[in-house]
Design a protein that fits this description.
The complex is a heterodimer of chains A (about 350) and B (about 425). Chain A is α/β, with parallel strands linked by helices and about 350 residues long. Helix content of chain A is about 40%, strand content about 20%. In chain B, helix 10 (about 210-240) runs parallel beside helix 13. At the A-B interface, helix 1, helix 2, strand 2 and helix 11 of A face helix 10 and strand 4 of B.
Chain lengths: ~350, ~425
């Protein structure tokens, strides 16, 4: 018994090292959980075609993805990374330091961030200024920054309903939160001349104003799981939720999206970038791995094909907002030629 | 007279005190009962929600269509096509023409909506059917096909089937076709074998748990192989051989502390040692198993030592008195007698390991993996990871599948706990 255990352990150890030394024949992708549904859908179609193994896609978050991606070149490191924002300069530098010199950037489409509520609730239309006033920790009253005094929507604007302000949103670790802060809160803050002035004089203080959300119960951190927010909205029609467009699209029979600055969050409005709260999604490719790991070029070809990211492709079914025709073409040629990003 | 009075007074006082003591006991009992009822109530609510949500995932809507294996649509030669040709043939086209034939008056732009009634994965069973029996080429067969996830949701009542609901994933036209199919008796719900036989997928109706079950099996096998011998050896040494001094005491305290360390810390340790230092493959059940072994080892050591402590010293003394060596005393008497306790501890430790996700995030096992792993070195997910990934998917149909995955996980946990109880019942010795 003991002997066989020992033999098994030794065998396992040998096999493990033999396995690690072997070159990889399967694409490995890491990164953002927002891009994950789309990259995995492409991976599955790519695998089904049968020529290559289905790529392994990890959901690590944008920042975590870049960390792994930039750690080095070779079969131990991932080939592609998903990102819900563009690569930062510091990350490019980290990449270069570890020998990841050439990185190809592929924009895959757009994602809208929506403010939605149950269909049982009255429809509401907001401006970004109103959203800022409802959610910022400190707002401007009589020219001074004070603790947010608003408890109901009609205190902000008489045309809004008299219900309590209650918004469920993502936690600080989420990329959706970052995008929301940048696209809604920063923009909303800038609509106050006094706060805009602050941006010029004290950038740090300005950042604090728009990125601190209320902690008095009006804004509720609901965790990374957007499905949970959807369920809570159903149970509580007075509340609003902040999440990605795909969740609104999947639950369109139960939820309604609020208009932002007069534009409703529809597929067409986001695609034509009329809807203001949308962000581009990216996939980054390690050029040094192309040709080393089999299938990367073919995988990119599948991703950039019209049947995937086109207007009526399967990614649009999954909730990705496609880029305009010219931009898609541009990106496809750029990616096809593996044009590396310049620092 | 006075005595009687005091006696009566004191007996009265005693009776009062007694009453108070009984009342206290009743209160305590009621509190205890309340606590149990509350715990059972929560368990009941948990199980009822999971089962009521998940039970519908055990069936899957199927649509019956008359499929013509037309050589031209398939793109194969009409007589004796080669196996390779049949493998690559256009089965999707066959399904589309079958749908168009079922609803001949649907035109142009609406066709695309019509095609969505059937799952995009329905072509694979057709391929298998034709390849198993090439004689079907050119004939028309009536086939049950997996319906698309949105149709499935509507059939199960998760989405309203009333036309005119704004924002419904199914258009009014699609709902009309569905009603028509139902009138023709061409819609039914069948047992969802896909859920138990395939790997993960982004299409809910094609997603399965088998990859995760196999991954969990490989991981736990590695865990068992590593932590059982090591854990038992450690507990034997500490209990029977080690001198009782401050060093062994320190080790003991540390083992107890280790049992309480958050599991994500072990994940970081695994990343640093197994992946970065030893260069083992990412996302592999081998590494997952090793990390889980680190987590369950303290539990096994503690349980093993407790089981050995319970063996009466008289048995050890008798063995030694009859001339057995210390090692013989351990292997022939103490270990066999304490084995039920050790095994129970091991199974509980493994059950704990089965439910872990946090440490696996660090070593890349929280990933989308379609292929079923063939060895502990292939990338693989495990059951709790599958639950986590599905719970986070936007598709509505993944809600019930998440609950179904939890049901499967709970089933395995219950089986393991049952095994522990049975082992204890069968081999337990009382002194």
């Amino acid at each position: 018994m003991k002997k066989s255990l020992a033999v098994a352990a030794v065998a396992l150890a040998t096999v493990s090292f033999a396995g690690a030394a072997q070159a990889r024949d399967q694409i490995r992708i890491v990164g953002s959980s927002t891009v994950y549904p789309f990259t995995t859908a492409v991976a599955e179609q790519f695998g089904k075609a049968g020529k290559f193994k289905t790529p392994v896609v990890e959901s690590t978050g944008t920042g975590g993805g870049f960390k792994l991606f930039c750690a080095g070149v070779g079969p131990d490191h991932p080939d592609l990374t998903n990102a819900s924002r563009a690569i930062k300069k510091s990350e490019m530098e980290a990449c270069a330091k570890n020998g990841v010199a050439d990185v190809v950037e592929m924009k895959v489409g757009y994602d809208g961030i929506v403010l939605a509520s149950s269909k049982k609730a009255k429809h509401i239309d907001l401006t970004r200024k109103q959203m800022f006033m409802a959610l910022a920790k400190e707002v401007l009253v009589n020219g001074k920054l004070v603790e947010n005094p608003y408890t109901t929507w009609n205190q902000i604007d008489p045309s809004l309903p008299s219900s309590k302000i209650e918004v469920l949103g993502p936690p600080p670790t989420s990329g959706t939160r970052d995008a929301f802060l940048e696209l809604v809160m920063e923009h909303g803050a800038e609509s106050f001349p006094e706060i805009k002035e602050l941006k010029k004089t004290d950038e740090k203080a300005f950042k604090k104003v728009f990125s601190s959300l209320r902690e008095d119960g009006a804004f509720i951190e609901a965790g990374e799981n957007d499905n949970l927010i959807v369920q809570k909205l159903e149970a509580n029609p007075a509340a609003f939720g902040i999440f990605g467009y795909s969740y609104l699209e999947q639950n369109g029979d139960k939820l309604q999206g609020a208009m932002v600055d007069g534009v409703a969050p529809t597929f067409d409005a986001i695609a034509s970038s009329k809807y203001p709260v949308s962000r581009p999604l990216f996939v980054y490719v390690k050029k040094a791995h192309v040709g080393q790991i089999p299938g990367i070029k073919e995988y990119l070809a599948e991703y950039t094909s019209e049947k995937a990211w086109g207007k009526s492709g399967y990614l649009a079914d999954k909730g990705l907002i496609p880029m305009p025709d010219t931009e898609r073409k541009e990106q496809a040629t750029k990616v096809g030629a593996l044009e590396a990003l310049k620092m | 007279m006075e005595n009687v009075a005091t006696a009566a007074a004191s007996s009265q006082a005693v009776a009062k005190r007694l009453k108070k003591r009984y009342a206290a006991e009743r209160r305590f009992k009621a509190l205890g009962f309340g606590a149990i009822a509350l715990a059972l109530g929560f368990l009941g609510i948990l199980l009822v929600t999971i089962f009521s949500n998940g039970s519908t995932a055990l069936v899957q809507t199927n649509i019956r269509l008359d499929v013509t294996f037309d050589a031209e649509t398939l793109g194969v030669s009409p007589v004796n096509p080669s196996a390779d040709e049949l493998l690559r043939a256009n089965y999707g086209g066959v399904i589309k023409s079958a749908l168009s034939k079922a609803f001949p008056d649907v035109s142009g732009g609406q066709r695309r909506q019509l095609y969505k009634l059937v799952s995009t994965g329905a072509d694979l069973p057709l391929r298998d059917k034709l390849m198993a029996n090439p004689g079907l080429l050119g004939t028309t067969v009536s086939v049950w096909m997996t319906a698309g996830a949105d149709v499935d949701m509507a059939m199960k009542g998760h989405v309203s089937r009333k036309p005119g609901v704004e924002g419904n994933r199914l258009t009014d036209a699609q709902l009309g076709w569905l009603d028509e199919l139902e009138k023709r008796d061409a819609v039914t719900k069948k047992f969802n074998t896909t859920l138990f036989t395939t790997g993960d997928s982004r299409e809910p109706e094609q997603a399965g748990l088998w990859g995760a079950v196999v991954g969990s099996f490989f991981s736990l096998s590695v865990t068992l192989l590593v932590c059982f011998p090591l854990g038992v050896a450690t507990s034997v040494y500490l209990e029977e051989f080690a001198p009782k001094n401050k060093w062994t005491h320190l080790i003991e305290v540390n083992i107890n502390n280790l049992a309480a360390v958050p599991s994500v810390v072990f994940g970081l340790l695994g990343l640093a040692i197994f992946l970065n230092f030893f260069g083992m493959p990412r996302s592999a059940p081998l590494v997952g198993g090793l990390v889980l072994a680190l987590i369950s080892m303290p539990t096994i050591i503690i349980a093993g030592r407790a089981a050995m402590k319970a063996v009466p010293p008289s048995i050890r003394e008798a063995a030694l008195g009859l001339g057995a060596s210390k090692l013989q005393m351990v292997t022939d008497h103490v270990l066999p007698l304490s084995m039920p306790g050790i095994l129970t501890g091991t199974i509980l430790g493994m059950a704990h390991a089965l439910g872990e996700t946090a440490p696996l995030l660090m070593i890349g096992m929280v990933a989308f993996i379609v292929d079923i792993p063939a060895s502990p070195l292939d990338p693989s997910a495990v059951l709790p990871v599958q639950v986590y990934l599905w719970a986070d998917s936007p598709e509505r149909a993944f809600v019930e599948r998440t609950s179904a995955a939890i049901m499967v996980l709970l089933f395995f946990l219950a089986m393991m706990n049952l095994a522990a109880i049975m082992l204890r019942k069968k081999f337990e010795r009382r002194w």
